[in-house]
Design brief:
Elements lengths: L2 H5 L4 E5 L3 H13 L7 E6 L5 H5 L9 H10 L3 E6 L5 H17 L12 H22 L7 H8 L2 E5 L2 E5 L9 E6 L6 E7 L5 E3 L3 E3 L2 E3 L1
Parallel strand pairs: 1-2, 2-3
Antiparallel strand pairs: 3-6, 4-5, 6-7, 7-8, 9-10
InterPro entries: ANF_lig-bd_rcpt, ANP_Clearance_Receptor, ANPR/GUC, Peripla_BP_I
Protein name: Guanylate cyclase
Membrane topology: Single-pass type I membrane protein
């Protein structure tokens, strides 16, 4: 089905970028205003939350059954865009190493069973990128204090990082991979519907379910 044709003239898109608690309150209010009637599609930008936190973001154990039910109903109209979580064996080992190191430095904090956030790997790759640029500057006879020269060597390049293929464009921005999460109305859990890669490829995991309608 053509999404644009289906939604043309009948749907409004609302983009949210806030904490999970704030998004939940907005969605409950949207339910009260009947904005979850199919005329509105909500996109939530959530780059920092863990997998466990994004599994059932509508649910709060310390809230009433009525509000949880309202939130769950409203979240049928919401899709979440988040950074794609790397799945390579290399990243899994990196995650184990980070958690082991964190346990030594911060004994009162635990990651649990899930892997570390993608941003941890992104910071690691940023250091590797800087190291590449610094080494090239030194090899070319440059000065390690020449920040402009070092920075320019980071632009418009690609290398294999801990998170996968790292691509920096000509403006110095990273071309990132993203996942589109959609709630399964039967389980109430958010799952990966599609993955969008920096190089333009697209990987569909499941059919998108919007208001109990499947899109393939």
């Amino acid at each position: 089905m053509d999404y644009c044709q289906f939604w043309e003239g009948t749907c409004h898109f609302i983009v949210l970028c806030a904490s999970q608690d704030s998004v939940r309150e907005i969605m409950i209010k949207a339910h009260e205003l009947e904005f979850d009637n199919g005329e509105y599609v909500f996109f939530n930008i959530d780059l920092f939350s863990s997998h466990n936190a994004t599994l059932k973001p509508w649910y709060r154990a310390n809230d009433t059954d009525a509000r949880n039910a309202a939130a769950r109903k409203a979240y049928e109209s919401l899709m979440t865009v988040t950074l794609r979580q790397p799945t390579s064996p290399k990243y899994k080992q990196f995650s184990k190493d980070v958690k082991a190191k964190a346990a030594q430095i911060y004994p009162n904090f635990t990651y649990g069973d899930e892997e570390v956030n993608s941003f941890v790997g992104a910071f690691y790759d940023a250091v590797i990128l800087y190291a590449h640029a610094l080494n090239e500057t030194i090899e070319a006879g440059g000065n390690v204090t020449d920040g402009i020269n070092i920075t320019r060597r980071m632009w418009n390049r690609t290398f294999d990082g801990i998170t996968g293929k790292v691509s920096i464009d000509e403006n110095g921005d990273r071309n990132a991979d993203y996942s589109l999460l959609d709630m399964d109305p039967k389980t109430g859990e958010f799952q990966i519907g599609s993955e969008i890669y920096a190089y333009g490829s697209f990987n569909k995991h499941t059919s998108i379910c919007y208001k109990n309608s499947l899109f393939t």
